[in-house]
Amino acid sequence: MYSIRMTASNAKRSVHAPICAPVLGVETSCDETGVAVYDPVRGLLAHALYSQIRLHADYGGVVPELASRDHVRKLLPLIRATLAQAGLGVGDLRGVAYTAGPGLVGALLVGATMARALAWALDLPAVGVHHMEGHLLAPLLEADPPAPPFVALLVSGGHSMLIEVAAIGRYTLLGDTLDDAAGEAFDKTAKLMDLPYPGGPVLARLAERGRADAFRFARPMTDRPGLDFSFSGLKTQVLLAWQASDQTEQTKADIARAFEEAIVETLTIKCRRALAATGARTLVVAGGVGANRHLRARLAEFGASESVRVYFPRLEFCTDNGAMIALAGALRLQAGQRETPHIKVHPRWDLHRSHADARG
Ligand code: KG4
Ligand code: ZN
After folding, report:
1. Are both 78 and 98 inside the same structural domain?
2. 319 CA closest ligand 1 atom index
3. Percentage, residues of the chain above pLDDT 90
4. Based on the domain organization, do 38 and 71 belong to the same domain?
5. End-to-end Cα spacing for the chain
6. Is 185 found in the same domain as 215?
7. Which of 176, 180, 185, 297 is most buried per CB count within 10 Å?
8. Do residues 263 and 231 touch, judged by C-beta distance below 8 A?
9. Full residue range of the structural domain in which residue 328 is found
10. Between 199-207 and 293-306, two packed helices, what is the crossing angle to 10 degrees?
11. Pair (190, 224) in one structural domain
C-alpha cells in the first residue's frame, strides 16, 4: 500500500567538526514520513521514507487529517527500522531533531510529539528544525558539499525562495513567491489537464514527449527588476491554451513542455540576478522542484558558462526526507542550540527568522 525506501549509507565522512553524536531526524510536515540518523563524524548512517501518495491519490491532493493519522501509524515502526538499519539502539542517540514547521499543523504535531517524547525519555536534547532549512542544507549530505557564502534557490510545493546564505543559520530572504510556489504551479497545472496527483513529476515526465515551441508561455516578472516570483498567471495561461486546444495527448505533452520551459527559464533568470546582486559564485538548488531534470540541466549549463558552482542534492533528497532534518538538527545541536522541552510547531514560519524563533 505504501512505498518504502530504505537505505543504509556506507559511512561517508562528513566535513563537520567531530562530536561523535548520532542524531535522529524526523520529518512529518506533509505527506511523507521521513526518518534518518546522521552522525557529524560518520555522515548519514541510515534513512527511510514512507510516502503517502497512494493514500491521497483518490482525492487529487493531500488530505491533512489522513496525513496526520498515517504519520501516527508509520512513525514509530519507521524509527525502529531506521535505527536497526544503522545498527544502533535508542541508547546510542545523542540528539533528536524534528520538523517544527512550516507545514500541516496536525502532521507536524505528530513528529514533534514523538520526537520530544523520545528525547525526554532518553534525556537527550531535541531541536525543532525549519523544513526549508532542511532543504537548504540537503546538498551538505553529498560528498562534495557547498560552503557558504552562497545563494540558495529553494523550490518546493509550498515555497519558491531565493536566499542569501552568509553562513549556516544566517539567511537573508532575497526573493519570495507572491502567489503560487513553483511546485504548486506544477501540481495545479497538472491537475487542470487531468494528470494524476502528485502532478509535478507526472507533468515533468510528460514534458519529455512534448515538442519544442508548439506553445509558449510568459516568463512571469522577468520584465522588471526584482527577485520575487509569481506563477499563478502561468497556470491561467495554460488553462486557456488547454481549453482552446484539441486536447489530444500530444497537445497535453506540448503544453507540459512549454509550461516547464517557462518555469525553468524564469528560475534561471532570477538565479542569475540573485548571484549578480550578491556577488556570490555558488548556487545551491533544493526542494522538490530541484528534482526536475530539465531545471537541473539548465542550471548546470548556466553554471558552466558563467563559472558559477551549482550544487543539487541527489534526487531523493530534493523531495521531503528525514536525512535533511537529521543533518540540520545535528548542526544546530553542534552549534550549542538547546530548547526548552515544549512541543511547539509553526505551521507558518519565516526561514530568515527561524534561528531567533527557535531560541525564543
Ligand atoms: O519539497 P517537497 O517534497 O515538499 C514540500 O516541501 O512542498 O516538494 C514537493 C513539490 C511538489 O509540488 C511536486 O510536484 C514538486 O515538488 N516536484 C516536482 C518534481 N518532483 C517533485 N516538480 C517538477 N518536476 C519534478 N520532477
Ligand atoms: Zn519540502
Report:
1. yes
2. 3
3. 89
4. yes
5. 41
6. yes
7. 185
8. yes
9. 2-137+318-359
10. 70
11. yes
pTM beyond 0.85: yes
Backbone angles phi, psi at 28, to 5 degrees: -140, 35
Whether residue 254 is predicted with pLDDT greater than 90 in this model: the reply is: yes
| pLDDT, tens only, 157-202 | 999 999 999 999 999 999 999 999 999 999 999 999 999 988 999 9
Judged by its nearest atom, the ligand closest to the C-alpha of residue 31 is 1
Nearest to 320 by CA among 32, 24, 12, 9: 32
Q: Above 50 in pLDDT, residue 2?
A: no
Q: State how far the Cα of 303 lies from the Cα of 280, in Å rounded to an integer.
A: 12
State whether the beta carbon of 186 lies less than 6 angstroms from ligand 1. yes
Closest CA to 24 of 118, 135, 102, 123: 118
What CATH number does residue 133 fall under? 3.30.420.40
Mean local confidence (pLDDT), 124-143: 97
* Residue 184 alpha carbon to ligand 1 centre in Å: 8
Atom of ligand 1 nearest to the CA of 293: 26
Quote the mean pLDDT of the chain: 93
**What pLDDT is attached to residue 234?**
95
Q: Is 190 found in the same domain as 111?
A: no
Task: Give domain status of residue 20, yes or no.
Answer: yes
**Element housing 310 (H / E):** strand 309-311
Same structural domain for residues 76 and 58?
A: yes
Residue of higher predicted confidence among 257 and 198: 257
Residues 255, 219: one domain?
A: yes
